[in-house]
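cron nightly-structures :: item 1 of 1
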Amino acid sequence: MVLDKLKNNKNTLFSFEILPPLKGKSIQSIYDGIDPLIEFNPAFVNVTYHREEFVYKKREKGYLEKISIKKRPGTVGICAAIQNKYDLEAIPHLICGGFTKEETENALIDLNFLGINNVLALRGDPIKTEPHFIPEPGGNKYAVDLVKQIVELNHGKYMDENLEHASPTNFSIGVAGYPEKHFEAPNMKADIKRLKEKIDAGADYIVTQLFYDNQKFFKFVEICRKEGINVPIIPGIKPIENLRHISFLPKFFNIDLPTDLTDELDKCQTNEAVFEVGTAWAKQQSKELIEFGAPCIHYYTMGKSKAVKKIASQIF
């Protein structure tokens, strides 16, 4: 299990996150993203989950029909395939949005049967048609509620209270942390309070949102420790690889780029130039995080391994 690796390894571990392929694509696209990184002995691979979204189509007499579209299916199946092919811990993202508690329980049972005993418990983002996150009727409202449900299963407590001699699961639970705070939190203090609730509920470790200023991560860890959060905290790193990332990443993830980094990026006229600056920055981040004693460095690949491979080949 991931928690065992984090606790028992003296050196900083290497891990990364991938996206499920778009509908209609094969599993080979996943393997193509993983194969170049296997030589660095990853401790685990995270697989994101993208919830269903909806479109409305006009029908006769002006009626609107709500049609579900699922752009990236297959998280559970991908995790099973990864563990089978690489003998590597695969961690599916499990989200609140779009699922009832019963559906969540069924998904956890399937994961347990497949021998997938690690999950990352997230609230998830609102869909594009929602002004804010709206939980599914009968579903978990917050990540802490999802953590509690998983812990209940680990204790052999299922939703059907009439079950006798139910087998407990054995999930190791990760949760998200935000060195620059979650964009919906009014301040860092409130965000850390919510994070501690997840840890107190039974989460085993934290994986952070991506960031580009290590000082913010160091401060985040310091605050967590002062508030009694003593589980492993894994920093998340995303190399900036192209011109689009310069504006997209800060906006999409609600983060800041350090002035020194933007000064260098402003000089770049091509994707190749951005790639060199971005990988050099992420490499230096990684070195500092290892010196700090990070238990693991988690790289967000977005399905592309070139930048992470370049960094890992010089770090791990």
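cron nightly-structures :: done
Residues 271-292 form the longest helix (22 residues).
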